[in-house]
């Protein structure tokens, strides 16, 4: 899984269909300080912070990360979209960079910036920039992450900003390849489907390595929203299934 907020684009840790994509493709030489990793996934829906961006259809996703042993990294990730329902075109492309590393034993920090790009969207402003930071805690078989992402005022956000706060939990079941996961997020700003521009999103699920680099996952995902009668429900609760591989 892409770490912290990168999984929220990718996704979102449990909200976007990069849901169980774990980077593992490593081209490392014994004396090299650079690691290259990649991931691919097929998800039954692309959910970004609880919001359906694939119109309920399958999403094809993948990404590449390049990391230095100093902790600095850059990467890119992409997903198919439903251009007829969502209105962002058929593709999302994310480019990000930052630094991650251990602050102390059991405590990791990740900070960076991400650019969301919609290369074949129609007329108008759609691309936007977001800054992110998270702290990850490890205790026994459990992991927890708390994070924040902030997109400053931009034309693509209607001349306003957007704040996202989240926490993620993961607990490995001893003696099995299964990890139970949970996510709770809160959005205040432009990127909601509520009348007051405030919304919670959530998910609970499980993931498991099934063979080599291949993993499967399922999560029940939803978000708050005020949807007009007859309109497509972007935040309707749904089970999302993911098949991923890392190399």
TrEMBL record:
Keyword Signal set for record: yes
Pfam family, one: Gcw_chp
UniProt signal peptide: 1-26
Keywords per UniProt: Signal
InterPro entries (alphabetical): CHP02001 (IPR010239)
Source taxonomy: Bacteria, Pseudomonadati, Pseudomonadota, Alphaproteobacteria, Sphingomonadales
Name the record gives this protein: Uncharacterized protein
């Amino acid at each position: 899984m892409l770490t912290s907020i990168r999984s929220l684009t990718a996704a979102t840790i449990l909200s976007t269909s990069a849901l169980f994509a774990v980077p593992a493709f490593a081209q490392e030489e014994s004396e090299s300080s650079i690691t290259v990793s990649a991931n691919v996934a097929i998800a039954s829906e692309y959910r970004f912070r609880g919001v359906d961006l694939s119109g309920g259809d399958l999403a094809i996703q993948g990404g590449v990360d390049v990391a230095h042993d100093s902790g600095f990294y850059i990467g890119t990730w992409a997903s198919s979209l439903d251009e007829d329902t969502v209105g962002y075109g058929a593709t999302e492309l994310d480019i990000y960079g930052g630094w991650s590393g251990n602050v102390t034993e059991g405590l990791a920090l990740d900070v960076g910036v991400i650019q969301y790009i919609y290369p074949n969207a129609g007329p108008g402003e759609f691309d936007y920039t977001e800054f992110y930071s998270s702290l990850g805690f490890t205790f026994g078989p459990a992991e927890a992450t708390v994070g924040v992402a902030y997109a400053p005022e931009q034309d693509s956000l209607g001349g306003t900003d957007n704040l996202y706060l989240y926490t993620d939990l993961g607990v490995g079941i001893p003696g099995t390849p299964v990890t139970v996961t949970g996510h709770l997020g809160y959005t205040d700003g432009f990127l909601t489907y509520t009348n007051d521009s405030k919304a919670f999103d959530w998910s609970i699920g499980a993931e498991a390595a099934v063979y080599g680099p291949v993993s499967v996952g399922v999560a029940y995902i939803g978000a708050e929203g005020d949807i007009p009668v007859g309109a497509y429900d972007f935040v309707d609760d749904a089970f999302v299934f993911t098949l991923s591989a890392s190399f």
